[in-house]
Request: fold
Amino acid sequence: MNTQLFGERIPPRIRNFFSFPNPVNEVAARIVAGMVVILSIIVLITGQWWLMFLIAYGFLARVATGPTLSPMGLLATRVIAPRIAQPRLVPGPPKRFAQTVGLIFSVTALVLHFAAGLSVAAGVVLAVLTAFAALESFLGFCAGCFVFNYMIRWGLVPKSVCEECLKFDSTRT
Reply:
């Protein structure tokens, strides 16, 4: 077995650890989004900006490993979702893209608040993140997934990345 991380092969154990599920249980994804909404609202109302590190870590963990290293992801996939609804499976790549966008927004809010001292701008960025997480959680509309599907249609993302995506309604993946 070749153990070169940047070569042709990555050891299966590492590859499996740093993987994102495909398909994804949309019920669990919506629950995680709801947790992001709650935590974000707490930050916005209380001004406890240190909680943004938890939000950013959660997005980073989910981008890197799916729910494996994400406390919110684990709670949603292993505890809450199985108790409230049957799984609704949707393609994973658009959800990973959406998590990446959430990571960018949360890190941007962190940098604006802690590095640049621009708390109002950080609050605006966090409010936008909260709005999109609320759309996902309450209405099932994943804006990142919507954009990802258009990126495939426009040729910005190869169709081979997610052939299943083209079979789904872009507002529901």
User: Anything to note?
Assistant: Residues 1-5, 169-173 have pLDDT under 50 and may be disordered. The radius of gyration is 17 Å.
